User: Fold this.
Amino acid sequence: MKEKLYTIPVNDAFDEDCECPVCSMRKSLESNAIDFTMGPSYMEDDVRGATSRLGFCENHLTLLYKHQNRLGLALILKSHMDKIIKDTEMLSEAKLSAPSFFKKKSEKAEIVSYLDKLEASCYICDKINNTFERYIATIFHLYRHEETFRKKFNSSKGFCTQHYKILYSAATKYLRGEEQNRFRKKLNNLYLDNMKRVRDDLSWFIDKFDYRYANEPWKNSKDALPRALEKTNGISLS
Assistant:
């Protein structure tokens, strides 16, 4: 494999006692991306140029604000706002000075297309996704070539729905024939067995609010709700 392999973070994630090791990997990438963006790098021209052009999604802008580097975030956002103002003025003036009588009414105005693209872009998301794709490739590389990792994978607590889908889909790219079938069968079992496990814990959590079960033990249900959030939607509250 010519591309860089990230064996250490992938192995570390599968060593964790968590409901989805892929969520753990992505959360680590997100934390590193936030730290990088709010570190000295925000003064570098190439980073500032990218953040000015791409901006941030709502989730990551909130995390940047919580980082507490208010001056750094203010500088980043001022540059981003300068770029938005410049681009909007340019597109608006071009539209006013050169109206098109041939453009279909159903076609989007350039300014709307620009804003749609801006709304869909995020510097942090891009930074995460560029490495995350290699993490997925590394999972399959290790699964194919290292028995120790394969045992970790097979004994994990499964995956959230989103990452189950990603792994199931990626199997077509990285595995062939019977090897792909075996992987998907194991993946399905891991996902469903552990989804049922958390579902059953959640069910007992609900029952504990019934007076008839007030004196019964909580078993493994006390943290069932946050674990269910991670299983269904990849939300980690830790």
